[in-house]
Write a structure and sequence with these properties.
This protein is mostly beta strands. It has four helices and 16 strands.
């Protein structure tokens, strides 16, 4: 069986839980929570970062703000989730202080999401009210250009900083480099399939995503290129796998248009390229 943020012990592969709201998952299922080997992100440095929280309190996945009413995350975070059971918190780098919580009106999981092989792991959330932008709250531009090997990327999240471990209070950041599709497939040969709608990033053993980072944004020069999907926990020297945003732009645009044409107008408007804090 494949897994979302694959947890591998010896030769056994386990799957992360589909969501906090599903039925009790099979034995061994776990969910990524924090970045391993990263550093504390400066306050206000990633205004697009979203914390998805059960009842608005307990963080379970990351996400990104892409319009005042639209949030992007991983399908495995919200598959079969009821919107009334969780909220999106923006505007803070701390889990235990600050921020504004917004109710979720609708969840749209990619219709071809497959949790057995972890493909099409992408979902869109629509907020009940318009998110108010400011110094610490802003949308991220979505990437629609190919990613080359060795490009500098940055991952942010509240995932555990060790495995096993506890969630950090502070948002963490980690600088990564992209690798090729062929390199990623080879690295995960015999573990789980890697698809051309996914991308992979790596630095070295001891640095990578972990439980709770799922659904969070992978960014290149102020544009989101990936959504945290799965990996071998945590930071074992294998590349982490992300849903490739570029591959889903048409699906994203159609989903936004089907809900409200104004979403699409905002998504496609020219934005000023913003470099993330180093």
């Amino acid at each position: 069986m494949a897994c979302v943020f694959l947890i591998v012990f010896s030769s056994v592969v386990f799957t992360a839980s589909a969501s906090l709201f599903s039925s009790v998952p099979s034995e061994g299922r776990q969910q990524w929570e924090r970045i391993v080997g990263g550093t504390k992100a400066p306050n206000g440095s990633y205004p697009y970062q979203v914390s998805l929280r059960f009842w608005g309190v307990w963080h379970f996945c990351g996400a990104s703000l892409v319009t005042p009413r639209v949030i992007l995350t991983a399908a495995h975070c919200v598959d079969r989730a009821k919107p009334e059971y969780f909220k999106a918190v923006v505007g803070t780098n701390q889990l235990r202080a600050g921020g504004t919580a917004y109710d979720i009106r609708k969840v749209v999981v990619h219709e071809q999401y497959d949790d057995d092989v972890i493909v099409n792991d992408i979902a869109i959330l629509f907020t009940e009210e318009e998110v108010q932008f400011g110094k610490t709250v802003d949308a991220i531009e979505l990437n629609d250009e190919p990613l080359q090997k060795g490009e500098e990327l940055i991952l942010t999240g509240w995932g555990t900083t060790s495995y096993p471990g506890k969630l950090p209070n502070d948002l963490m950041q980690l600088h990564l480099k992209s690798i090729t599709y062929e390199e990623c497939k080879s690295a995960h040969d015999g573990v789980n399939a890697v698809f051309d709608t996914q991308l992979c990033a790596l630095t070295r053993e001891g640095e990578g995503a972990c439980h709770g980072d799922s659904g969070g944004p992978l960014v290149r020069e102020g544009r989101q290129v990936g959504v945290v999907s799965w990996g071998i926990p945590c930071a074992r020297g294998k590349p982490d796998v992300y849903t490739r945003v570029e591959s889903y732009m048409r699906w994203i645009e159609k989903t936004l248009y089907d809900d409200d044409e104004d979403h699409l107008k905002y998504l496609n408007r020219p934005k000023t390229r913003r470099l993330d804090a180093m």
